[in-house]
Amino acid sequence: MTDSAGRDCRDLVAGVLLAGGQARRMGGGDKCLRMLGGRTLLARIVDRVRPQVKTLMLNANGDPSRFAAYGLPVEPDRFGVSAGPLAGVLTGMEWAAVDAPACRWIATFPTDAPFLPLDLVARMHKEAVAGGLKLARGCSGGRSHPVVGLWHLSLQAALREALVEDGVRKVDVWTARHGIVDVVYPSEPVDPFYNTNRPEDLETAGKLLADHAFDDAEPG
Fold it and tell me: Tens of pLDDT along 45-96?
């Protein structure tokens, strides 16, 4: 997918893997390091999203050395660990502004959703640009998934102000201020945004993985 100047949208988008949560429903620890089909959730997600973006960063708090095997830059929340996913989005924006200056957007990915679409970034970018909007999010099964998103870097100052001055914590509250396009995917046979919040969700994901073929090849 190219923009009006003929540039591949992947050259304009930095990816941010959001792993800053405390995973209480999973029993604590790093949910993204749980195993699924002999590989970690994080490894599976990285394989699916890395080809879709120019560069990729992991937003996680604590000792970054536990992620050394993945070869990713690791950035802790810059606003505070209790501010929710918007803190991770702001961290991604501020990181991209310095470390990925050619990019105009960030795409955020949850690190508990192992079946993310291979064309996710291209579709979000296409539909956001077509709608003249600076935000996009994934949707499936009649539900939106607020942290599966595309965010234009021109909104960085507005997001920081919302966090610091207004105390906004809910993603939907903030995105509603700016307008957002819903990028809809079918939820059958497998919901591409299925997330593994609890141990039983991880068991279900294992069954889905066994029953369906998932292509981790680079999207065309």
Answer: 999 999 999 999 999 999 999 999 999 999 999 886 567 899 999 999 999 9
Read off the pLDDT of each residue in 2-27 and give the average, rounded to a whole number: 71
Question: How far apart are the C-alpha atoms of 53 and 134, rounded to whole Å?
Answer: 17
User: What pTM does this model have?
Assistant: 0.91
198: domain CATH number is 3.90.550.10
Determine the Cα–Cα distance for residues 34 and 112; give it in Å rounded to an integer.
9
pLDDT at 8: 80
Within 8 A by CB and 6+ apart from 95, the residues are 14, 16, 57, 73, 75
Domain residue limits at 156: 9-211
Asked if residue 214 lies in contact with residue 45, where contact means CB atoms within 8 angstroms, the answer is: no
